[in-house]
Amino acid sequence: MKKHLIFGASLLGIAALSACSDSFRPAEDGDGEGRLMLKATVNSDVVVKTRAGQTNDELAKNTLIWISNASGAVKKYNGIDEVPTTGIKLLSGHYIAEAWAGDSVSASWDDRYFTGREEFDITKGSAVQVNINCKIANTLVSVEYEEAVCNLLTDITMEVGHDKSTGTRDGLLTFTQEKVDQQAKAYYMTNSRSKDLIYTLRGTLASNGQAFEYTGKLEDVARATEYHLIVKHTDQEEEQIGGAWITIEVDESEIEVEDTFEITTPPSISGIGFEISDPVAGMVGELPRRSLWITAATGLSSVEVKSPAFATITDLGGDDFELLGMSDRVKTILEAAGINFAYSIHEDTGFSELKLTFEKEFLNSLPEGDYPVSLTTTDANGRTTNATLRVMPTNAKVMIQDVDPDALTITSRSAVISGNILRDDAANPGIMYRKKGTQQWTKVAAEVTEGNSYTVDLTGLEPATTYEVAAYCDGFESTAIQQFTTEGEPQLPNASFEDWSTYSDKAAMPSADPNNFFWDSGNHGSQKMGKDITVQATDLYHSGNSSIKLCSQFVGVGAIGKFAAGNVFIGKYLNTEGLSDGVLGWGRSFTARPKALRVWVKYIPATVTHADKANTDGIVKGDMDKGIVYIALVDGTKTSYNGDPWPVVIKTADKTTLFNQDKPQVIAYGEKVFTEATPGEGLIEVVIPIDYKRTDVRPSNIVMVASASKMGDYFTGGPSVMYLDDVELIYE
Question: Core-most of 52, 300, 315, 625, by most CB within 10 Å?
Fold first, then answer.
C-alpha cells in the first residue's frame, strides 16, 4: 500500500500594513506594486514515530522560502516565522517562488528534505495566490526478513549506503533487527554523481556458526520512491548466495499522500506607530493613546489580555479578559473605560487582523506605577504568540529602559545602556551604575540625546560581574533599577598541554582523561600504522613542563600508506573510513567573544615530499611546506555523523566538507600561516586577531586547529614540525 503525508506550510502574503498609520486598513499598493498570497504544502511519506511529536513551530523553522526574479533573489525567509504576517509586496514582473523544508543530510532515520518551485506574475494592483507544492527529495529504503531467513541466520543486519565509487556522499545506515521490527524507513539524499545505493546483508549461519555476507546494488535510484528490500529463503540451488539459499527482492513504489499537517506563520503583535518593546511611559495624566495590531495568516481563535491595570475598572470583576469570546456586557464595560477593539477577516485569503486600542481616558486614569499588559493570541491552526506592553505613568524625570540580560551590547568589560526622558525639565541626563551589593553609584553622562531617549556606553567593567543601573538627571535619581551580568572570559582547558594520557587505540591524547577530553588529533588514524603524529614534547616549551609537538610524516610501510599532517584540534576524531580517510568532529560549546588568540609557537618547515594536485594552494613536491593555526567562532548549526551532532564534520575523503571560513555559520575567524621557520631557538609569541564577520548573533561553539602542514587535508606536505604551547584567548 502506498502512503503519503502532507505537511502544509501556509504562507499568506498581503499588502503590508502601515507601520506608522493608526487607520484600520492595509496600506494602498504603491505604483506598480501587487500583492502575493503564498501557500506551501510539503508532501512527505508517512508519520515517522520518532518525529510524530514534532511541533508546528519546529517544522516552520526548517522551511526556507525564496522569491526571485531575473535579477536574483528579492525576498529570502529563513523559516516561515520570518515571513511577515502583514504580507509580501512585490513590484510588477515575473517571479519564481521556491521552498525548501526539512534537513538535507546524506542519510538519516528521521531527517527528510522537500523542495518545490512555482512561477507567477505580479501586475499593478493584483492579488496573486501561489501554492508551492514541495515534494520529498529523499530516496527511501525499508527492509523485511521472511521468517525462514530468521531461522537460517542469526545476528542479521542490513547496511545500506551511498556508492562511494560514484560520488562524494557516504551516508551509511544499518538496519538492525530492532529497526526492521519497527518497520523503520531510511532516508537518503542523492545527486548526479551518487545515484546508486549499496546494500550489504550480514549474519551468522545458525547451522555452523560461519559468517555470512552478501553485497548488492540499487542502481540509479529515484527520489520520492521507496525501495523495500525483501530477504527470502529458498531451496532452489541456482539462487544460492554466499553459501545460503537466500534471495533479495526489491519492491519499488512511488510515494503517495496519506494525511495533512499544516504549518502557518504565527500571529504577529505590533505597536502602531511605536515599538511594543518600548514602555508607554510619561507623566501621570499625560500618557498618549496607544493601539496594538494583531495579524494572522488565518482566523484568530482567541486573544487573551491580562494586566493589574484592569483591576481598576469598575464591574470588570478581575484583571483579564478574552476579546473574541467576551459578552456584550464586558465589551460595554471596557469601552466605557477606554478600551476597544475591531476584528476583521479577509474572505478571499483568510487573512485576519485585530486592532486593540487603549484610549487616553483609560491610560490617564492609572496612578503612578508599572503596569505590564500581557497578550496571548492563538490562531485557528493553534499557533500562539505572546507579547507584553508596559504602561508606566510616573512623576519621574528620567527612567532606565529595560535591559536585556542577553543583549549583544553587553560584553565582558562593557555595556550599552539606554534611558528615557519623561519630562521637559530633565537636564543633563545619564546612567549611574554600581556592582550589585555595593552602595556607591558611578555616574556617566549622556553625550548625545535623540528625541526622548539617550544611550550611554559603560566601560571598564569587570568580567562575570552583576551590575545595577538606573537613570539620573540634574536634581533627580531614579529608584527604578535594572541589572545585568557581564560575560565571562573563559580560557580553553589544558591550553598548555601539560596533561596527557593514552586512548584505548594506543593513540596519545592531550588530556588527563582519555574518555573526557577537549582536544584531539589525527593520532587515531596514524595509530593504525603504529605511529603518533602528535605527541607531548619536553624539549621545547614556553611554560610548565611540556608543549604539544605536531610532526608531519608519511605513515605506512614501503609504498603503502599516506602522508599525515601533525595536527591538533578542538573536538573529536570520529572515525577512519577505508584505510586512511579520517572523519573529524570539530568544535565545542563556547559563547564568549574573545578579540584575539595568543599562542607560543616554534615552526620548523620541511620540503614538500607528498603533494596532491587538487590541493588549493597549488603546492608541488620540492616547495617549502607551510604551517597554520586558526580559530573560528561559529553559530549553533550542527552536522550529524552516526547520530551525533557536531559544529563541523570534516571528511578527508570528501573535500566539499573541508572547513571554509566564508560559510554563513562562521561568526568570527582568525588565522596565522607560517611560510618560514620561526626565528630563534625557542617558541615565539604569536597573536592572531579575530575578525567578527557577524555581530548579530552570539557564538555557540569554538573551533581551533593547528597543523604542521597547511594542506594536510589533501595529504600534502613534508616532514615539518610545529611546537605549540600556552594557548590563550584575549578579550580586550
Answer: 625
